[in-house]
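Per your request, structure below.
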């Protein structure tokens, strides 16, 4: 890719993005503005930045935050290793924040470094974390052709207007209208000139960038059908929905690790059979060694769930080895990784007893590795001769699925029994 260019073909020379994140999140409530609320331990804004930075043809990402959150944003960028991101100071309304972000490319009162002016600029709310490359590409290409473009969705409810007496005045024909969503994209000069001509009323009460391009630059935006997950986190329930979507995406794949012992391999196989209808399963049979390439590939494939089966009680050493390998793999632990240590207790060992000291050791270990964003749980498969092994393994599989779907940090270090 040419420096400052983009790999969308010769059509668009350079693309940048401005993410307004300077609001206070009144409708959501609470002391923390919604863009900084933790979702699975990571601030919401970090997911949106990640969604942008994984698009290689976006050269610069400007995150606009209120003055009191500049340091918070900088520490988020550092902690999560975000690239190509510049922080700008927000204004008292969304439009003022966006305008401040755009100024970094043209007139820069906040820092000495003036960024390269892009041909097309994307504007995307920092509280819409699930934006995909496909829709970004569509709005950018449409902006190149029409000057402005924005994602739309069908209306969920009919829009009605009330009269002064609080009674219905008129109602709009729902099929003719659309909800305006984000992302939107503009030829930089179009949106910048529009903002320069805005009145204070526009800047303080306006909610629609596409409208500014039409009003001040006579640019009719192209409207592009978006997907349902472009919705904006606005109310508390939206945070719960975002959390569920993220948990769901982290629960798509699991890696089962066994050593070469026959009984362990057998349980690994049965577990694989039991889980594979619900989740993609990778099975690795190794004596945990630091140079196992299959396991290394699984780490870099961004698998966030591991089951390590052994016939040693608790097997803290094996789990520690896995933790070391995860850390050494240089995969940034952006989301909590689930590590389930499955202990297989066969029927001959009827005198198996739960040792309080071991349990305490396991809990201490789990608390330590939680700091590395790894959640460790213990699971005992108690195989009795009078029950088919597959039945016990099925109940272990159900517990494993519950642990990885819930990803509950409060349950770390606990020993479950299948
Ligand atoms: N002065 C402002 C106000 C809003 N925004 C950003 O614009 C996006 C969409 O706005 P909205 O959902 O209205 O956010 P808030 O203003 O924070 O929410 P509320 O209206 O409930 O207070 C958010 O990412 C928000 O941080 C901004 O950059 N600067
Ligand atoms: O969808 C949008 C633009 O079309 C904006 O996200 C929306 O208008 C923001 O408005 P508000 O800050 O009032 O939620």
């Amino acid at each position: 890719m040419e420096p400052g260019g983009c790999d969308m073909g010769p059509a668009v020379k350079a693309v940048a993005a401005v993410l307004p994140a300077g609001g206070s999140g009144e409708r959501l409530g609470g002391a923390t503005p919604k863009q900084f609320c933790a979702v699975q331990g990571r601030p919401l804004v970090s997911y949106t930045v990640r969604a942008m930075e994984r698009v290689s043809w976006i050269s610069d990402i400007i995150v606009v935050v209120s003055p009191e959150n500049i340091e918070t944003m900088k520490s988020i960028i550092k902690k999560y290793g975000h690239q190509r991101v510049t922080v700008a100071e927000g204004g008292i309304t969304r439009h003022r924040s966006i305008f401040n972000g755009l100024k970094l490319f043209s007139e820069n009162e906040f820092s000495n470094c003036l960024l390269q002016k892009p041909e097309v600029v994307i504007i995307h709310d920092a509280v819409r974390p699930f934006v995909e490359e496909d829709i970004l590409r569509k709005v950018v290409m449409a902006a190149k052709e029409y000057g402005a473009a924005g994602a739309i969705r069908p209306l969920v409810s009919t829009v009605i207007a009330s009269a002064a007496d609080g009674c219905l005045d008129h109602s709009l024909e729902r099929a003719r209208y659309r909800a305006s969503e984000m992302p939107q994209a503009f030829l930089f000069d179009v949106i910048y000139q529009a903002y320069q001509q805005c009145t204070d009323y526009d800047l303080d009460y306006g909610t629609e960038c596409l409208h500014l391009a039409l009003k001040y630059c006579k640019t009719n935006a192209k409207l592009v059908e978006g997907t349902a997950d472009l919705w904006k986190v606005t109310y508390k329930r939206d945070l719960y929905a975002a959390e569920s979507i993220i948990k769901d995406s982290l629960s798509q794949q699991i890696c089962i690790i066994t050593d070469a012992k026959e009984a362990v391999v057998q349980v690994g196989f049965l577990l694989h059979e039991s889980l594979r209808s619900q989740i993609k399963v990778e099975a690795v049979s190794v004596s945990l060694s630091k140079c196992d390439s299959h396991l290394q590939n699984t780490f870099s494939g961004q698998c966030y769930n591991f089951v390590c089966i052994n016939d040693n009680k608790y097997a803290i050493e094996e789990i520690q080895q896995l933790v070391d390998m995860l850390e050494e793999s240089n995969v940034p632990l952006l989301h909590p990784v689930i590590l389930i240590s499955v202990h297989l207790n066969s029927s001959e060992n009827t005198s198996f007893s739960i040792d309080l000291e071991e349990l305490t050791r396991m809990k201490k270990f789990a608390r330590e590795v939680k700091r590395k964003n790894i959640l460790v749980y213990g699971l005992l498969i108690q195989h009795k001769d009078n029950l088919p092994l597959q039945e016990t393994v099925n109940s272990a599989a159900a517990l494993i699925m519950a642990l990885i779907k819930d990803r509950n940090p409060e349950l770390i270090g606990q020993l479950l029994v299948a």
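The longest strand covers residues 178-187.

Regards,
D.
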